[in-house]
Amino acid sequence: MKWFLRNLILLAMLITIAMIAKPVIADSANDENTQTNTSGSNTNITGGYESTTTNNNDGQTNTTTNTTTSTTNGSDIPVNSANSPSFSSMSQDVCSMGVSGSLSTLGVGISGGKHVRDLNCERIKLSKVLYDYGMKVAAVSILCQDPRVHAAMQSAGTPCPWNGKIGSDAQAMWDKYPELRPDYEDYLVKAEAIAKIDEKIAKEKARIEAEKIAEQERIAEEKRIQQEEEAEKEKERLKKIEENKKNEKANSNNNPPVSVHE
What we know:
- The structure is a single chain.
- The protein is an alpha+beta fold.
- It has a domain of 63 residues.
- Helices cover 50% and strands 14% of the residues.
- The protein contains six helices and four strands; from the N terminus they run αββββααααα.
- Strands 1-2 form a two-stranded antiparallel ribbon. A two-stranded antiparallel ribbon has the order 3-4.
- A hairpin with a 2-residue loop joins strand 3 and strand 4.
- Helix 2 runs antiparallel to helix 3.
- The relative contact order is 0.05.
């Protein structure tokens, strides 16, 4: 198809150049020559020249004046039409599309056309025939040759069959040999995008986890310091109680008991 269109465009360019470069033909019927002869003979000159000649011979004077005007009269000629060939696939069980074109210039006309196969139409028809024969897995398999169908089946959680395997077994094989996927290029683009997003999510989770750990460590440190302060206070309290007991005992030793008699 590309070769046909390229040759058609090249031919159109050549015809256009040929039309622009057409020659100009002089019309001698419109030449105007004025000549005055006194003696001798002169030759009529045409072609857009203007000349004046004076001859002196034995006292004779010959003066010649020539004026030539050249014009070209064009004519309007209607260009013949070039009809494109008709391609029709109506009411026919075929999967093809007709493409045709034509070009017409002055004196030259060209037209051409061809049929182009519709592979997607063929795939659908083959799948329908296989399904009618009861070959449901085969019908789905031939549809899965289309990258769009393969991606849709993947998104729906029903992966395309793989050499007789279906379901999770087929998915495991597609994951093992991703190069065989009909949508491999799109798969790589999606996988790269998913990897970048997952990396961002992982970094965000790591940051949140680090902040959480730091907060837990801060709380634990504050609790430890609080416990140490409480322990120090309790130690001081017990120390004071012990000192008070010692002081009371010392005071009791310095003051002997008094006996009371009736």
